[in-house]
Amino acid sequence: MTNKNGEAQCEIGVIGLGVMGRNMLLNMADHGFKVAGYDKDKQKVDSLRKESKEQVFGATDVEEFLSLLKKPRAIMLLVPAGNPVDLVIKELLPHLQSGDLIIDAGNSHFTDTDIRAQNLQKKGIRFLGVGISGGEDGARHGPSIMPGGPKEAYEQVRPIFEAIAAKVDGKPCVAYLGPGSAGHYVKMVHNGIEYGIMQLIAETYDLMKRGLGLNNDQLLHAYLSWNNSNLGNYLIEITTHIFATMDEKTGKHLIDEILSVAKQNGTGMWTSLSAMELQVPLTVIDLAVAMRDLSVLVKEREQANSLYKRPIQQVSIDHTIFLKQLQGALLIGNIIICAQAMALLAVASEKYAYHLNLESVARIWQGGCIIRAKLLDDYSAAFRLNAKLSNLLLDPKLSEKVMAHQEDLRQVVCQASITGVPMPGFMAALGYLDAYRSSWSPANLIQAQRDYFGSHTYERVDSKGTFHTKWEKDLPT
């Protein structure tokens, strides 16, 4: 689209007109921006043209697409992560000029983002790695947006991002996060938190279903109650919708017709791997990744079930009381997941020179994204009070919440162990809390063992330096 002087008019272009790309384009158009979409699939382009407004244009030819964009051009990629991103960049490069901007808005691994940014910089092309959360509804009506890369590149598209992002208290859920791969790193950790919270919710479902004997209507009531409390979050909200949905085919609750296998797309695993590399304990998210892997082993689980027979026991505590305890335990579990994840962001920010503002990170997660929750207000307030807070569990107000419900978590873990309902996420959360609050650690024994078999040396409590011992081989009689 050009004006009468032959000048291109579209302010941004989107490559990839699947659900996310199309919805992002329509969101931009809703806010008054002239936009262009490109896809090799003619049906997707035609579909966009039919449902779009006057300021949305489509193309199936890359040169035609680029001719629609104002210079310097801003091009957003909404294609699958990995090789597809590199293929699109390769297709674009012969037609780009110095100063043009490529925005990767997919779930790319942060190391890939750094490599692409460095390679494109050599060619004079600017590059932003942008995390977007909110699914197809968020893309259409307001996502949480996590941009990283050159600050001047972000400024080029800032008005568009601020317009289309979700709003909380009138503020857009977008902020410039930092250089390089900061945006994609934050989005990766966001997805890790998502894994952890989903695992804990699934464990409450299992305990209430098999340990309390609640039916789907009773489960719906429990989740509705929790979502209307200080525990309220998007994932519990959609859980209520899930338990209210009936299957058109069978007339039964749809949840009971879904195979109990949950796969992973990599972002949770990436979060755990990065945390291990940076030596940040991420126990609940690690566990959530492992439990998705375990869910896939259907035949092995069936064999193990026949070998290790033990009927599920019923929870012995009054059900009304126990449901309140389970709610408190889930509250603590959510806090611990985010405390671990934010601690990872703090260490990664230092390691990779992202200069992250964790208050801003918590703020832009308050709307639009999958992990939006009432508790994010508390996290944002904690970092506003202390920008260098190393762990959210050290915040005075959050520690009060944890202390108020720690016995709930203990009771839930105890009851789960007795019933035989697996709740490894809650167990990992409690184990982390007790280990983190313990000023003494049994790691001295581990270090002694390392010195025994590998001469790895150890440090003493009464002297500085490192020491090695020729350990006694003969035990006293």
| DSSP E strands, number | 9
CATH superfamily of the largest domain, by name, is N-(1-d-carboxylethyl)-l-norvaline Dehydrogenase, domain 2
**In sequence order, what are the helices and strands, one letter per element?**
EHEHEHEHEHEHEHEEHHHHHHHHHHHH
Helical segment tally? 19
Q: Tell me roughly what share of residues is in helical segments.
A: 40-55%
What is the C-alpha radius of gyration, as a whole number of Å? 26 Å
Uncertain spans: none
Determine the N-to-C terminus distance: 92 Å
For the residues shown, what is the average pLDDT? 95
Proportion of residues in β-strands = 5-15%
The top-level CATH class of the largest domain is Mainly Alpha
**Domains, number:** 3
Shape type: globular
